[in-house]
Amino acid sequence: MSEAGTRGIVDDVPPLVTDGLPETRRIAAYAPDLAYERDAWNCGATWVAGVDEVGVGPLAGPVTAGVVCLREEDAFSWFKHVRDSKVLSPGSREELAQLIRESACSAIGWATNEEIDRIGILPARRLCMLRAIEQLPVRPSSIISDALSLPLDDVRPVVGADALSVSVAAASIIAKVARDQFMCELEEAYPGWGFDRHKGYATREHRSLLQERGPLPVHRRSFAPVAQLSLPW
């Protein structure tokens, strides 16, 4: 990545002004590093995968996981620009996601709203992570997961890993961009619902439309604001 190619991203990274922010936001503001990846490489791992999921809280659409695999010799220039996807602008996320997908070994996994309703959101979070890892063209020797344990060998769950680990932050970015694109496509399928704006989250606009029109097939009927619309009162 050239200096010109990263200027917009650098300008958009939030300054490290953390006074008054909640703890989770203070952590997210800092640049992740490769400390967890180096721990795995030093123990003999070749491919180290960072995995994260997005879309846990929305009332509609899938939960989506990204996974990014790195080797010790990888030294991509975007390492110093990745952050937890929540603190980046949509434009920065999209630019970084393209760079990550073009240069690193990565994949996306999904769990549908129907699966969320059938098995619950926590199992669905694990399911989309496992599906992402299954899509990789390589088998990771070690996995850094954002908080969740997984039924695989050598998995290290780390709370807040998307703000601490380069590979997990990168995974959060490609997952967020993929899910946002999916939700924009849902707006084309269901015009007027605003999925391109609220991405399925429980905004005032979204809740109002749910009350007026009732749920769509893409809504999570096990989530209380949607489920309550089916109650007999």
- CATH homologous superfamily descriptor: Ribonuclease H-like superfamily/Ribonuclease H
How many structural units, i.e. domains?
1
What is the CATH C-level name? Alpha Beta
Give the overall pLDDT as a whole number: 90
What portion of the residues fall into strands of 2 or more residues? 5-15%
Approximate shape = elongated
The major pleated sheet works out as: 5 strands, mixed
The helix/strand class is alpha/beta
Q: State the distance separating the first and last CA atoms.
A: 58 Å
Give the tally of β-strands.
5
- List the secondary-structure elements in sequence, H or E: HHHEEHEHHEEHHHHH
CATH-defined topology: Nucleotidyltransferase, domain 5
Instruction: Indicate the percent of residues in helices.
Output: 40-55%
Question: In a few lines, what is going on in this structure?
Answer:
This protein has 233 residues and is an alpha/beta fold.
Keywords:
5-stranded mixed β-sheet, 11 helices, alpha/beta, single chain, elongated, disordered N terminus, Nucleotidyltransferase, domain 5, 45% helix
